[in-house]
Amino acid sequence: MVNLWQGPAPARAGKGPGPLSTQRAGILELLQTTDGAVTAAWTAQRLGLHVNTVREHLDALVTRDLAIRRRAPVVGRGRPAWAYEATQLTEHDPRVREYAGLATALAAHLTRTSSDPREDAIAAGRVWGAELMDERAPGDVPSTSAPPAEAEAEVTALLARLGFDPVVDGGRLALRRCPLLDAARRHPTVICGVHLGLVRGALDALGRPSEDAEIHPFAEPGACQLFL
Fold first, then answer.
1. CA–CA distances in Å: residue 210 to residues 20, 76, 228
2. Is the CB of residue 215 less than 8 Å from the CB of residue 129?
3. Which of 49, 68, 170, 222 is the most exposed, fewest CB within 10 Å of its CB?
């Protein structure tokens, strides 16, 4: 099971400047994977944090339209506590929505049926990545293999369109968001395999070597690592 505090944030950052902090993104992920509304006290106990810290993060998620807040049912005397629930995530790029549905179904199917889920996931992602690169306008497609810097820029732009919020960091890309974070935490072998295949397929379409590309899932607080 992956570490809740490692890896990227959910794909949408909501209103407000800058990305979510690691703790705030982890709390949002918990809301998204919990049925119904929860209180700050329950969340604090679940995550091992101080209730005041959790309440501050929850209210910030409400401000960014990533969560909604309402009064919990009355239990005993006194004012009922606030209860929080994640808002429904939506993506503007239709390819992200299509990807999310396909990858979720693929993860469940391969996990159940494949003798090598990771390799099958990479193969599926590879086809998809090549197809996405083929959608570029004719003037954007190089007639020969793209120079390394151009290929990196193309792959970075593709990942940005799909909601990964990639940032060049030395010799790697930090993928700071994930459009399918819940499924990636439950089925990292398959979902992260699809992501790796996507990158390799894009590099294939650009005429660049692709086999050395690697993704290190949930490698650091706030990001996965992609090496091209």
1. 31, 62, 8
2. no
3. 170
Is the model's pLDDT at 4 over the cut of 70?
Answer: no
pTM of the shown model: 0.61
How many other C-beta atoms can be found within 10 angstroms of the C-beta atom of residue 115? 7
Fold of the domain spanning 94-227: Muramoyl-pentapeptide Carboxypeptidase; domain 2 (3.30.1380)
Long-range contacts formed by 139-145: CB under 8 A, 24+ apart:
142/206, 142/207, 144/207, 145/206, 145/207, 145/208
Q: Domain boundaries in the chain?
A: 9-86, 94-227
End-to-end CA distance of the chain: 26
The residue to which tokens 């379409």 are assigned: 205
Token couple for 92: 């503007």
CB 10 within 8 A of CB 89: yes
- Report pLDDT digits (tens) over 160-177: 888 788 988 777 899 988
Give the pLDDT mean for 106-110. Answer: 81
Residues 2 and 114: their CA atoms lie apart, in Å, by 22
- Whether domain 9-86 has CATH 1.10.10.10: yes
Q: Which of 84, 69, 86 is nearest to 12 (CA)?
A: 86
Q: Are 65 and 17 in contact (CB under 8 A)?
A: no
DSSP state of 5: T
Residue with tokens 């929505």: 97
